[in-house]
Write a structure and sequence with these properties.
The protein is α+β, with helices and mostly antiparallel strands. Helices cover about 55% and strands about 15% of the residues.
Amino acid sequence: MFSSWLEEKRQAFGYRLNLWFTVVLVLLSAILFLTAYLLLSGSVRAEDREVIRAQLEVYRAWYQDGGLSGLSDHFAQSQGSGKESFFVRIAGPENAGLFLSLPNQSDEFDLATLENIEFDKPFSWATLPAQNRRVNWLIATMHLPDGDWLQVGKTTEAQTALLAHFQLVFGWVVIIAILAGLAGGSWLTHRALAPIRQLIAGVQHVITTGKFDQRIPLRPANDELTQLARLFNQMLEKNSGLIRGMREALDNVAHDLRTPLARLRVTAENALQAPDDAVMFREALSDSLEESERVLTMLSTLMDISEAEVGLMKLERATVNLAELVSTVIELYQFVAEDKGIKVTMRVPEALTCSADPNRLRQVLVNLLDNALKYAPKGGAVELTAEARPREVVIQVKDNGMGIAPEELPRIWERLYRGDKSRTQRGLGLGLSLVKAVVEAHQGRAEVVSQAGGGSTFTVTLPANTSGESKGI
Ligand code: ADP
């Protein structure tokens, strides 16, 4: 139980961050300690040498004034002045001891080790270990003009004590700094990682409940974590919109499929219950064919829209001559237009081309013209135009029909959406969704300008032809 908790903690990002933080803190403290220690011991050692040097000069002066006896006299007089804390020795040639004054201290050193000092330089320093090995003796040796050697020394006790004290104080400071760093670091990482924990909770909520209703609270600071939380909220918003749209589309599809399928069933049931009448059977079969045709068209259009929207629609791009394409589409609807007494006109420059899949572009124009004729009044007018703009080709289908109410305008591009006033007309509510999906698959735009009762103008903007060669449609 405890070990699994520990393992979980060990793997936590905050724990590792804190560990790194502490390692860096310890390393920095060690560097700081070493630097301070080296500086301090260097300066203490220099000070010791300075003191010994000054003392050496005093003894040298005494010795030069009165020789060995003068030096002994001075020592006898200065008993108790603190001078006895120095080791003083006069050595003749071959290191023979002529005078010796030993300080009254416990940390004595073995006089035999003086043998190790070589009298080869006019002035030299030597360090000899004291007998208890805790401290050292620092000894300066100077060649005197009469050929003898003057040696003055002092223990490094004060220096060692100071450095030991420094080590102790610094050790405590480091321990306290590490503990404070650990506590402060874990508090800081805990605080800094709060948005990440909220993000994890948000994701878990989405995974366990399947709902996109929760949002991550945003902090006032606009740092990277707040930006991440904001992006996550935007993603949730977008996803819930998409899912809502998908659900609505699915509901609509189910709803719209029910009617033709129910009709199909009723037709079949009626035919089965009717007396054996060949004419009636034929009529029932023809009705069933019509309904299944409607269902098939609906499903294949829905699949086309989905493919175009996700970029899976295969576009056989070619250079399309727009004048030819528009006149073919008008020809297709010639009888429908004549039937309603609608005058269809076109204004397209003969040489105007664009790069598109000719079949798909024809489908776009067919849908737009079909709508224009459907929603234009009897004896109305429909106009198809196309013109070149810099790097674009703009195609418009304009009618003087019933127009679209402002509140319906944003919805007409949705799958299966049909305007309230359009329900009396034939249609599946998929025409404009297909137009938009196909045009956008061509990297174009589909837009509308319309007013209720004031007619509508649908505009399709496509990238201009790049090759310049017209293959026709
Ligand atoms: P539908 O099969 O209903 O025509 P569309 O997707 O082609 O489906 O169009 C969606 C809705 O947009 C229509 O139901 C209608 O309300 C509106 N609409 C489309 N074209 C026109 C137009 N030319 N004039 C008026 N309303 C239109």
